[in-house]
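Quick bug: Universal stress protein output formatted oddly.
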Amino acid sequence: MINIVLPVDFGDKTEQLVEGAVKFAKQLNGKIFLIHVAPSDIGFAIGDMGYQYFPEVEANEIRAELVELNKIEQRIIAHDVDCEHLLKQGIAKDTILEYAKAKNADYIVMGSHGRSGIYDVFVGSLTKGLTKDSHIPVLVLPIHD
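Here's what came back:
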């Protein structure tokens, strides 16, 4: 069986990415290892008193993201593709690469929104970083509006 790591961010293009990954997994008799990386600072806010940590905000956000992750996993399984998931806090690129290594991944499947130039300078590109640093092949699916 081929192991495929599929990072998701719950953005508006996630469904297209999942559909492409499912199609790829079916062609290779693959299993999808779904991962969502939440930021480590999810419960922090800055205000008049400086940085403050709100554990209840973090817990609620993590709970909501886990619900979304479970929904995606169930949609994948409904297409007769084996799937398991992980939600972890950390730095996205590093966490995804660690997970891919731990799961003996044959591929990491990412989406490309076709942005470049100034967008990458200010926001960065997770896909670009993964393709640069991964020892595991990264399949980049074009995601369009």
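Actually, after a second look the formatting is fine. Residues 117-124 have pLDDT under 50 and may be disordered. Closing.
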